[in-house]
């Protein structure tokens, strides 16, 4: 014969479920404006890292499993691969301009754990021409970067980007 649950047990179970729902809803809402400023500051620091050729800063902010969508390709390069790519790129490029063309757009998932940054920048300078000399370049880049909140900071999950030559 199966034992019938006691009314007190049912009441306690319902109270526990209700209390847990209330506690989840009582978590303080994330300060999205402060987090927006953090994302914008990280964007500025990434631009500075390019100008200062600080590959370590860039790679240290990448998540494991980082992705890149560009030129019709989806890539999942390792940190070591990204470090090597940035070492070569930054080591052979002289920037004369690297600036936002419009105010970056920052958005968040409902719980604030995921953020995105949409930017349009002008990048110009000089880089190798393939024959031992250098050539001028000027590009307008646009990209969306995805970030995930981990602990007290943000990691760079990946990005999708494109560019056009000239102005």
Task: Report what the structure shows.
The protein has 167 residues and is α+β, with helices and mostly antiparallel strands. The chain has one domain: Nuclear Transport Factor 2, Chain: A, CATH 3.10.450. The protein is 36% helix and 41% strand. It is built from four helices and seven strands. Strands 1, 2, 3, 4, 5, 6 and 7 form a seven-stranded mixed β-sheet that branches. Strand 6 (134-150) and strand 7 (153-165) form a beta hairpin. The radius of gyration is 23 Å and the shape is elongated. The protein starts with 6 loop residues before the first helix and ends with a strand.
Set down the secondary structure blueprint.
Elements: H1 7-25, H2 32-52, H3 55-60, E1 62-70, E2 73-75, H4 79-92, E3 94-100, E4 105-108, E5 114-128, E6 134-150, E7 153-165
Parallel strand pairs: 1-7
Antiparallel strand pairs: 1-2, 3-5, 4-5, 5-6, 6-7
Task: Provide key terms for this protein.
single chain, about 170 residues, alpha+beta, Nuclear Transport Factor 2, Chain: A, about 35% helix, elongated
Task: Briefly summarize what is shown.
Helices cover 36% and strands 41% of the residues.
Major β-sheet profile: 7 strands, mixed
The name CATH uses for the topology is Nuclear Transport Factor 2, Chain: A
Q: In percent, how much strand structure appears in the residues?
A: 35-45%
Radius of gyration: 23 Å
CATH architecture classification name:
Roll
Output the structural class.
alpha+beta
Count of distinct structural domains: 1
Low-confidence stretches: none
Shape: elongated
Number of strands: 7
CATH class: Alpha Beta
Helical fraction equals 25-40%
What is the N-to-C order of secondary-structure elements (H for helix, E for strand)?
Answer: HHHEEHEEEEE
Total DSSP helices = 4
| Head-to-tail CA distance between termini | 82 Å
Mean pLDDT: 88
């Amino acid at each position: 014969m199966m034992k019938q649950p006691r009314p007190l047990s049912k009441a306690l179970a319902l109270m526990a479920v209700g209390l847990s729902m209330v506690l989840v809803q009582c978590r303080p809402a994330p300060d999205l404006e402060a987090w927006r400023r953090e994302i914008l500051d990280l964007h500025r620091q990434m631009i500075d890292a390019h100008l200062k050729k600080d590959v370590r800063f860039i790679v240290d902010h990448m998540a494991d499993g980082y992705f890149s969508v560009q030129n019709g390709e989806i890539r999942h390069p390792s940190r070591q691969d990204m470090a090597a790519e940035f070492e070569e790129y930054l080591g052979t490029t002289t920037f004369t301009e690297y600036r936002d063309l419009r105010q970056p757009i920052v958005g968040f998932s409902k719980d604030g754990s995921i953020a995105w940054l949409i930017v349009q920048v002008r990048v110009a300078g000089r880089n190798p021409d393939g024959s031992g000399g250098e050539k001028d370049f000027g590009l307008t880049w646009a990209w969306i970067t995805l970030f995930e909140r981990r602990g007290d900071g943000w990691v760079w999950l990946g990005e999708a980007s494109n560019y056009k030559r000239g102005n």
